[in-house]
Amino acid sequence: ADARFAPERASTRELQALATAIADAVPIRKIRVTGGEPTLCDDLVDHVRHARSLVPEVVMTSNGVLLEPLLPALQAAGLNRVTISLDALDPVRFAAVARRPGLERVLAAIRAAKSAFGTVKINAVALPDTDYAGLVRFAMAEGLHLRFIELMAIGVAREGHATAFVPAEEQRARIHAAGIRLDECPERDEPTSRVWTIRGTAPTCATVGFITTVTQPFCATCDRLRLSSQGRLHTCLMDDAGVDLLTPLRAGQPGEVRARIRLAVAGKRPPAVQQRIGVMAGIGG
Q1: For 61-82, how does the pLDDT look when each residue is reduced to its tens digit (9 = 90+)?
Q2: What distance in Å separates the CA atoms of residue 88 and residue 182, rounded to the nearest whole number?
Q3: Alpha-carbon distance 130 to 197, whole Å?
Q4: What is the average per-residue pLDDT within 194-205?
Q5: Distance between CA atoms of 103 and 127, rounded to whole angstroms?
Q6: pTM (global) more than 0.70
Q7: Residue 161 has pLDDT above 80, yes or no
Q8: How far apart (Å, rounded) are the C-alpha atoms in residues 265 and 67?
Q9: How far is residue 49 CA from its own chain's centroid?
Q10: Distance (Å, rounded) from C-alpha 97 to C-alpha 85?
């Protein structure tokens, strides 16, 4: 909801109309509400309720800072699960990476979400000074599904990416060096992550995943679409431009909206270069 990333936004009604048009034009089975930070949106519960009217599974990615008090209403509206970002367990390190305080509120949100939904995914961006073993031990203790994300050359991360990038293989080496044994579990792999179980724990309780966007991109099997708060449809995370759906919607041209959606989906291709000029907060992960 930061005006720096989306100074002009479609209204709630317009975004819901576009979501409906996309679901009508192409087969959609899951909707993820993301951002930016979705809990900053005043109409978040309405968006979740509407999304659930379109598909059987609605999930959300949040930084967790404002999430805990919203969980009952979100769950009642039909939210199935949340993914929460947690890049560090030390308050000083957390504030440095997240650029805000609030670690205790995030931890409280994680535990409340685990209680509400039974399962929670945690996302951590892999950086040179990330406490890989500490985060894995936290996932083991709390029964969470942890995902390390390879740093992508997007927005502010483009500068210095070569020195800040830690490949998944090195991440696993650091975890192994701390005495934690991971076992590859391809049957648990997800569309965007390779999943490993933690030796000595039940695989249903805690897992470690590696989102290998850089070293092993999953473009060939990607079927994700992104609808921005400005009413643009992006068929790839690296697609800066997107397709304008808001103009024909406002012009009362539903047929043109559907035609643009179908054309964009038909033309979905892997990116020529794995980098994006715009910031991640403007498009979602």
Answers
A1: 999 999 999 999 999 999 999 9
A2: 20
A3: 20
A4: 87
A5: 18
A6: yes
A7: no
A8: 33
A9: 19
A10: 11
Q: For residues 257 and 173, what is the distance between their CA atoms, to the nearest angstrom?
A: 48
Burial class of residue 45 in the structure, from the number of CB atoms within 10 Å of its CB (0-12 exposed, 13-18 middle, 19+ buried)? middle
CA angle 110, 112, 117 (to 5 degrees): 90
3-class secondary-structure state, position 169: helix
Amino acid (1-letter code) at residue 30: K
Contact criterion met (CB below 8 Å) for 59 and 83: yes
Cβ-contact 221, 229 below 8 angstroms: no
Alpha-carbon distance of 63 to 225, in angstroms, equals: 21
Q: Which residue has 């769950």 as its token pair?
A: 75
Q: What angle do CA 10, 113, 137 make, to 5 degrees?
A: 120
Element (H, E) at 263: helix 254-266
| Dist CA 169 CA 254 (whole Å) | 47
For residue 148, how many C-alpha atoms fall within 13 Å in the half-sphere facing its CB?
29
Scanning the structure block, which residue is given the tokens 């080496």? 173
* Residue 33 predicted with pLDDT over 90: yes
Helix (H, G, I), strand (E, B) or coil at 229: coil
- Say which residues have a Cβ less than 8 Å from residue 126's Cβ, sequence separation at least 6: 132, 148, 149, 150, 151, 166, 168, 171
**Cβ atoms of residues 231 and 15 within 8 Å:** yes
Cα gap 110→124, rounded to integer Å: 13
- For the segment 206-256, what is each residue's pLDDT rounded down to a tens digit? 999 999 988 888 888 889 999 999 999 999 887 878 999 999 999 999 999
Q: How would you classify the pairing of strands 182-184 and 153-154? A: unpaired
Rounded Cα gap, residues 31 and 237, in angstroms: 16
